């Protein structure tokens, strides 16, 4: 058990490198309701809530639907 301590500490510290997102910079698109949301931020962020899935980055932020709504509103304003 004591031999596992350095690896456990390494795993915990590597997770801390993922940054908390800045809400004003977040952009996302809903793919399947509120369950599957794609992160649209470019370049791809090193984000605490990001989950790589193939060629896309999924958003697991608890506020992801608010981000989707804000992104859609911004796109509509840009079209006007």
Q: Report the biggest beta sheet as strand number plus sense, adding barrel if it closes.
A: 2 strands, antiparallel
Structural class: alpha+beta
Summed up, the domain count is: 1
Determine Rg (CA atoms, Å): 16 Å
How much of the polypeptide forms β-strand, as a percent range?
15-25%
- What is the topology, as strand order, of the major beta sheet? 1-2
Low-pLDDT windows of residues: 8-15
Instruction: Compute the separation of the termini in Å.
Output: 62 Å
Output the number of helix runs.
2
The total beta strand count reads: 4
Proportion of helical residues: 25-40%
Shape: globular
Order of helices and strands: HEEEEH
Output mean pLDDT: 82
Q: How would you characterize the overall build of this protein?
A:
The protein is an alpha+beta fold and 80 residues long. The chain has helices spanning 5-15, 64-79, and strands spanning 28-32, 36-39, 50-53, 56-59. Helices cover 34% and strands 21% of the residues. A hairpin with a 2-residue loop joins strand 3 (50-53) and strand 4 (56-59). The longest helix is centred in the last third of the chain and has 16 residues, at 64-79.
């Amino acid at each position: 058990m004591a031999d596992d301590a350095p690896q456990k500490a390494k795993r915990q510290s590597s997770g801390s490198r993922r940054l908390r997102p800045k809400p004003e910079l977040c952009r996302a698109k809903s793919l399947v309701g509120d369950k599957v949301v794609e992160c649209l931020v470019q370049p791809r962020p090193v984000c605490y809530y990001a989950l790589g899935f193939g060629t896309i980055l999924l958003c697991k932020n608890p506020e992801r639907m608010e981000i989707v709504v804000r992104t859609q509103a911004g796109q509509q304003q840009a079209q006007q």
